[in-house]
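Thread: Modeling a multi-component assembly for a lab meeting

Hi all, long-time lurker, first post. My supervisor asked me to bring a structural picture of a complex we are working on to next week's group meeting, and I have zero experience with this. I have the sequence lines for every component (228 residues in total). Could someone generate the structure of the whole assembly? Inputs are pasted exactly as I received them:
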Amino acid sequence: GESVGLHLPTLSVQEGDNSIINCAYSNSASDYFIWYKQESGKGPQFIIDIRSNMDKRQGQRVTVLLNKTVKHLSLQIAATQPGDSAVYFCAERGRSNDYKLSFGAGTTVTVRA
Amino acid sequence: KAGVTQTPRYLIKTRGQQVTLSCSPISGHRSVSWYQQTPGQGLQFLFEYFSETQRNKGNFPGRFSGRQFSNSRSEMNVSTLELGDSALYLCASSPRTGVGNYGYTFGSGTRLTVV
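Re: Modeling a multi-component assembly
Sure thing. I ran the full set together rather than chain by chain. Output:
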């Protein structure tokens, strides 16, 4: 069956360092992936997305990498700031699950000053 | 433009009662999906509505139901509440559905506590 998971439930990062959050997925037919950030008391907020025909996409301070060979997705945050402290979710969708978004368990990122 | 609006933000209900939650999507968005978020299970898909029709349903009991109105606003209802229904209920709005859907915007959620 399909599942989307994150390698580590928590990540502690020094302010100014780069962060890497990982996600493994099992559905090789997934065609679209999204990273969300969820701050306390708020709903998930879109960060960046990538389609399966790409292997890298960059945004402002964030980069998503997709490795379809090993079914791995990562989110890189450059120069991590205190405002980056949140829970990060990866989500995937594909034809096999009728294009519903399926979410991983989340990684809690804490930025140390 | 206005984001996804969910009301109410917080609810406290007693076991056995029923509850109705509301979601107003982004203007022009026709798809509304509902998710349940709990610490143990994460984000679980409940259902999706598109053009007033339920397009998809997750693995939840029949106590969970929903509907969508002609203005795309959606409601979800939970009957005969159980303690385990305590969760954050999130609504996600999208312009399209299916393979052409690349935009999901979440509301801030309704925090339901069942006592």
